[in-house]
């Protein structure tokens, strides 16, 4: 039966309830632009969503050579046909009239149009000059979690073995570096242990700092469908905001910002005290239990209650839920990762699973989530601070093996120090040792902390900045050369979601003007730079997406992220397949560690671990003596208070994050009318009690100030934790006209005007989620209310007297067809 639903007003659509251990029924969501009937679609082209890490599989409708809509893929393991609001509407941005259609170079201070040869010659000339004068360390590359695998791999080989620089990282540093680090600390290696099917089997689902309803809306549909079915799971939600998941939780803990480690240590304390420990599992598969037990011994719920400002009894209830779970699934995201003890906290969640033996079985899994759609590939291809294929930069035989794959001398591959992380790269650019920074697929002039500093770094004359993007973003406006990129739908490639599912994304339509796929740009650069292997042959031996994929397969062979069993043909004939996929696992691998811990052995591990307090890398000998047999490491950590605490001048805690309808700096979602209208401008969330104390009302224009800067937006009064402010970080200044210009006297609206240059010692992920801030009235509201959605964590509090705030709806243009497909059968046999 088909139904038509306004998917702005009802973001998660209709329910298809199912019972525990049953397969999740399919529901196919289709959106076609007004005036296009389904039978007018000439081609459906296979892809998956690129607006979060879920990998919702879909087909793009093509009519007369242009995109006209999207449809979920029922047969795909990830989404069983469903799409979220961004999946449904954001593709419209591709055809935006303000796409970059040709390269730009800066002449006499202004960006002017030029041809590709002029732009590339300028980049190559600068690269060669710098290599001659200052060596490879003067060149840095800052890439993304939104390009394709083939592109990262090409960039990584070029940067590491072509240029020979250690300065290559992704915006994944801001996003999932803690996920990777936590997996390395515990399991010796990156690689998601669990998978989304675990939602079907779990009886307890715990969400740590993860606003799943808004940031992985399709997996939230899956949870909602289980909540509506037989034997529903119980939810634990740890989040200081009243998220949709918090409202459905059996236990909701809303801790003070930056206190996750204290809370988690108390949960571990209770589980050990009540002996909910799986002693057999712990003995067989872990090291470090005694140390962990000793470290959390004093961490009682009463102790944590004082730090987290959560009732001790609630912490006890949460521990009871975790301790009695038959199959526990936990997910972890930015509420944990973007804080001063990010890795220390994320690792405690791994510890919870290990001491309870909740790993490697259906429903018992941990998801150290990714955020961006292709962040996994940035990591595995080594376009972040790691070597490709999860190789260990401290292990000479791993470096030698990589050198063999690339046919270069091992000395060519920098491994004298850990690869430079993004925050350090910007510091080097600030100090002048990095003189060229090539930025692809990311908008740091909005997304990095302390924007006034970032603008001044990127604006320096001595720094040569290349920006490769779809639009003339805030960052592109500061560039010396701007390269117009083709994007999703206009180029072919693969990418891997947060549960290791690899999807193929085929080209559906041509890119606008002279825009080129990122792969072609990187290949062109490598050819012009004439990068060579050790025998004088070309370093880059591939020429298109499929040959790049084949080259990557050779690099991944025998490593945890083994792609050797995958081909474009197989992906095109089916749908998503999970790595490792090889001879032993030809259909892919649902879960890691079903048979014990496999990649922590000193000879194979990606990392020997770090000191969680200082970030100092452990040496091989230390790791060997700690973990000779390659078990999982239970790493304990003491709680440390956040670096910046409220005081008289800055009495609030400030956190920043996302809303359902927008993606990051909104280069795509602001250009999709349905999404833009649902949340058109920035807002500030405060609690009922704080608003009353300051005499503030819904819709008042307020200013949020920190020692770094200030922003202005309208106030939304919600059920957020008292003492806490929330600001979405999506809003830069490009489309706002006067009043929001950066710098100058008028505060902007970007959250990162206020955030701090500071990071987790182990993962180097910046702290977007804890600052101290002041709040003041600028101007009374005009009665229209804040431009914040009512369907999300930003819903007005009933007690705020904001009954007048109009509900968020999309109207006719947001109608989406939902069909329960009667011909659909479970795509795979569901395991039990
Ligand atoms: N709609 C939408 N979806 C997205 C994205 C998007 O931009 N828009 N981006 C994608 C990307 S790249 C990412 S990384 C993910 C991020 O996905 P999430 O991590 O789910 O999103 P955030 O809003 O950054 O933060 C999640 C929650 O952390 C809570 N939090 C803040 N401080 C703390 C704390 O100290 N402790 C705890 N326990 N919680 C805290 C916040 O209240 C917030 O609800 O989303 C992905 N999906
Ligand atoms: N205050 C605060 N700041 C944050 C966060 C937070 O929670 N709070 N979250 C952080 C996180 S988790 C993330 S992931 C970052 C995201 O921060 P950014 O990566 O800066 O955000 P995006 O808007 O996704 O930028 C991607 C850019 O790539 C372009 N692009 C899209 N597709 C392509 C393509 O195919 N090729 C090329 N060349 N370009 C393309 C887009 O137009 C856009 O300009 O923000 C971080 N910053
Ligand atoms: Mo992210």
From TrEMBL:
<dbReference type="InterPro" id="IPR006963">
    <property type="entry name" value="Mopterin_OxRdtase_4Fe-4S_dom"/>
</dbReference>
<protein>
    <submittedName>
        <fullName>Nitrate reductase</fullName>
    </submittedName>
</protein>
<keyword id="KW-0004">4Fe-4S</keyword>
<keyword id="KW-0534">Nitrate assimilation</keyword>
<feature type="domain" description="4Fe-4S Mo/W bis-MGD-type">
    <location>
        <begin position="42"/>
        <end position="98"/>
    </location>
</feature>
<dbReference type="Pfam" id="PF01568">
    <property type="entry name" value="Molydop_binding"/>
</dbReference>
<feature type="region of interest" description="Disordered">
    <location>
        <begin position="781"/>
        <end position="832"/>
    </location>
</feature>
<dbReference type="InterPro" id="IPR006657">
    <property type="entry name" value="MoPterin_dinucl-bd_dom"/>
</dbReference>
<dbReference type="InterPro" id="IPR006655">
    <property type="entry name" value="Mopterin_OxRdtase_prok_CS"/>
</dbReference>
<dbReference type="InterPro" id="IPR006656">
    <property type="entry name" value="Mopterin_OxRdtase"/>
</dbReference>
<dbReference type="InterPro" id="IPR041957">
    <property type="entry name" value="CT_Nitrate-R-NapA-like"/>
</dbReference>
<feature type="compositionally biased region" description="Low complexity">
    <location>
        <begin position="785"/>
        <end position="811"/>
    </location>
</feature>
<keyword id="KW-0411">Iron-sulfur</keyword>
<comment type="similarity">
    <text>Belongs to the prokaryotic molybdopterin-containing oxidoreductase family. NasA/NapA/NarB subfamily.</text>
</comment>
<dbReference type="Pfam" id="PF00384">
    <property type="entry name" value="Molybdopterin"/>
</dbReference>
<dbReference type="InterPro" id="IPR009010">
    <property type="entry name" value="Asp_de-COase-like_dom_sf"/>
</dbReference>
<feature type="region of interest" description="Disordered">
    <location>
        <begin position="1"/>
        <end position="20"/>
    </location>
</feature>
<keyword id="KW-0500">Molybdenum</keyword>
<keyword id="KW-0560">Oxidoreductase</keyword>
<keyword id="KW-0479">Metal-binding</keyword>
<keyword id="KW-0408">Iron</keyword>
<dbReference type="InterPro" id="IPR050123">
    <property type="entry name" value="Prok_molybdopt-oxidoreductase"/>
</dbReference>
């Amino acid at each position: 039966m088909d139904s038509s639903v306004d998917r702005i007003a009802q973001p998660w659509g209709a329910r298809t309830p199912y019972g525990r251990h049953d397969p999740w029924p399919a529901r196919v969501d289709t959106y076609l632009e007004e005036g296009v009937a389904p039978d007018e679609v000439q081609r459906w082209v296979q892809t998956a969503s690129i607006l979060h890490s879920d990998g919702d599989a879909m087909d793009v409708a093509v009519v007369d050579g242009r995109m006209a809509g999207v449809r979920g893929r029922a047969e795909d393991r990830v989404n069983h046909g469903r799409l979220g609001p961004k999946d449904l509407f954001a593709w419209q941005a591709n055809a935006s009239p303000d796409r970059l259609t040709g390269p730009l170079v800066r002449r006499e201070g202004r960006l002017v149009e030029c041809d590709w040869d002029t732009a590339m010659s300028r980049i190559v000339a600068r690269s060669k000059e710098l290599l001659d004068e200052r060596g490879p360390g003067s060149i840095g590359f800052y890439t993304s979690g939104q390009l394709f695998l083939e592109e990262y791999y090409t960039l990584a080989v070029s940067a590491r073995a072509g240029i020979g620089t250690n300065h290559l990282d992704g915006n994944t540093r801001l996003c999932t570096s803690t996920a990777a680090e936590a997996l390395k600390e515990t399991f010796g290696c990156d690689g998601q242990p669990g998978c989304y099917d675990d939602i079907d089997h779990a009886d307890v689902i715990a969400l740590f700092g993860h606003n799943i309803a808004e940031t992985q809306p399709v997996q939230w549909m899956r949870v909602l469908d289980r909540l509506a079915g037989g034997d529903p799971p119980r939810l634990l939600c740890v989040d200081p905001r009243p998220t949709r998941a918090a409202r459905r939780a059996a236990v909701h803990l809303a801790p003070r910002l930056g206190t996750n480690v204290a809370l988690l240590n108390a949960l571990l304390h209770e589980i050990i005290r009540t002996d909910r420990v799986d002693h057999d599992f712990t003995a067989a598969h872990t090291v470090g239990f005694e140390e962990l037990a000793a470290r959390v011994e004093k961490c009682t719920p009463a102790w944590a209650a004082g730090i987290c400002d959560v009732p001790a009894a609630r912490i006890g209830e949460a521990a009871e839920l975790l301790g009695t779970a038959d199959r526990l699934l936990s997910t972890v995201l930015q509420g944990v990762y973007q804080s001063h003890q990010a890795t220390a906290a994320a690792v405690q969640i791994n510890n919870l699973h290990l001491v309870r033996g909740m790993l490697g079985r259906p429903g018992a899994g941990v998801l150290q989530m990714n955020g961006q759609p292709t962040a996994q590939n940035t990591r595995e291809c080594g376009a972040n601070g790691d070597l490709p294929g999860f190789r260990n930069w401290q292990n000479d035989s791993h470096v030698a093996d990589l050198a063999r794959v690339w046919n270069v001398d091992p000395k060519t591959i920098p491994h004298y120090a850990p690869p430079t992380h993004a925050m350090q790269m910007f510091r080097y650019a600030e100090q002048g040792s990095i003189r060229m920074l090539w930025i692809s697929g990311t908008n740091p002039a909005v997304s990095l902390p302390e924007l006034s500093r970032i603008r001044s770094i990127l604006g320096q004359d001595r720094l040569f900045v290349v920006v490769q993007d779809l639009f003339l973003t805030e960052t592109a406006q500061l560039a010396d050369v701007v390269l117009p990129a083709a994007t999703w739908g206009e180029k072919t490639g693969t990418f891997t979601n947060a549960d290791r599912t690899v999807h193929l994304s085929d080209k559906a339509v041509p890119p606008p003007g002279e825009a080129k796929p990122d792969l072609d740009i990187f290949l062109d650069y490598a050819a012009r730079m004439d990068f060579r292997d050790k025998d004088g042959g070309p370093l880059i031996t591939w020429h298109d997406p499929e040959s790049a994929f084949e080259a990557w397969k050779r690099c991944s062979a025998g490593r945890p992220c083994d792609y050797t069993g995958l081909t474009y043909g197989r992906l095109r004939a089916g749908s998503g397949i999970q790595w490792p996929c090889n001879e032993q696992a030809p259909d892919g691998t649902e879960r890691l560690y079903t048979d014990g811990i496999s990649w922590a052995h000193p000879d194979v591990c990606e990392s020997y671990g770090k000191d969680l307090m200082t970030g100092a890398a452990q040496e091989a000998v230390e790791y060997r003596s700690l973990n000779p047999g390659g078990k999982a490491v239970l790493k304990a950590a003491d709680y440390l208070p956040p670096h910046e605490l409220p005081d008289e001048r800055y009495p609030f805690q400030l956190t920043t994050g996302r809303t359902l309808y927008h993606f990051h700096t909104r280069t795509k979602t602001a250009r999709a009318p349905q999404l833009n209208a649902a949340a058109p401008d920035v807002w500030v969330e405060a609690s009922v009690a704080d608003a009353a104390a300051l005499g503030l009302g819904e819709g008042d224009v307020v200013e949020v100030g920190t020692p770094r800067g200030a922003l202005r937006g309208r106030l939304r009064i919600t059920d957020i934790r008292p003492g806490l402010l929330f600001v979405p970080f999506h809003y830069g200044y490009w489309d706002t006209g006067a009043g929001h210009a950066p710098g100058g006297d008028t505060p902007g609206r970007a959250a990162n005007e206020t955030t701090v240059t500071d990071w987790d010692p182990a993962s180097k992920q910046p702290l977007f989620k804890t600052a101290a801030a002041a709040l003041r009235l600028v101007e009374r509201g005009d009665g229209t209310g804040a431009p914040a959605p009512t369907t999300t964590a930003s819903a007005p509090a009933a007690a705020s007297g904001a009954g007048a705030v109009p509900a968020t709806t999309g109207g006719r243009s947001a109608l989406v067809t939902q069909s329960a497909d009667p011909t659909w059968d479970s795509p795979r046999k569901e395991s039990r």
